[in-house]
Specification:
The chain is mostly beta strands. The chain has 1 helix and 9 strands. Strands 4-3-2-1-9-8-7-6-5 form a 9-stranded antiparallel β-sheet. A hairpin with a 5-residue loop joins strand 2 (35-43) and strand 3. The longest helix is centred in the N-terminal third of the chain and has 18 residues, at 2-19. The chain is globular, with a radius of gyration of 18 Å.
């Protein structure tokens, strides 16, 4: 009986924590970089970033992976602002994403990204979804 109650309490705690989180997925919508994808789990209110996984593929073919420890700043109020930085063998890389909700839509966001590698700066359009 004690095991059943313990299992029931654990299951209800998992349900509560799952409903208290949101997903944020972003990707580049142009060919200014070969690829940019970001997947994150945030608190439902957008104040806390629980996890992040991302990948940047440059035109040169180089692939850079990002994780939660590479997040320099993050904010998701009405708009999303995310800055990632990583030190690589070729030097530091910074990725900035700024997106706001599409008109009449709280789940789909659109905006811009900027990738800075050394003296090179590339920018373009990004699309995100959250919920």
């Amino acid at each position: 009986m004690k095991r059943f109650l313990l299992a029931l309490m654990a299951a209800s705690a998992m349900t509560a924590s799952a409903s208290a989180s949101a997903n944020l997925d972003c990707s580049a919508q142009d060919k200014n970089v070969a690829g940019l994808t970001i997947e994150a789990i945030t608190s439902r209110d957008g104040k806390y970033l629980a996890s992040l996984r991302g990948e940047l593929q440059l035109a040169s073919g180089a692939k850079i992976s990002f994780e939660r420890s590479d997040v320099k700043s993050y904010n998701w109020g009405k708009n999303v602002a995310l800055v990632l930085t990583k030190q690589t063998a070729q030097g530091p890389i910074e990725v900035r994403v700024y997106a706001k909700p599409k008109p009449d839509d709280d789940i789909e966001l659109e905006g811009t990204y900027v990738v800075i590698t050394g003296k090179t700066k590339v920018s373009g359009k990004v699309q995100c979804s959250g919920g």
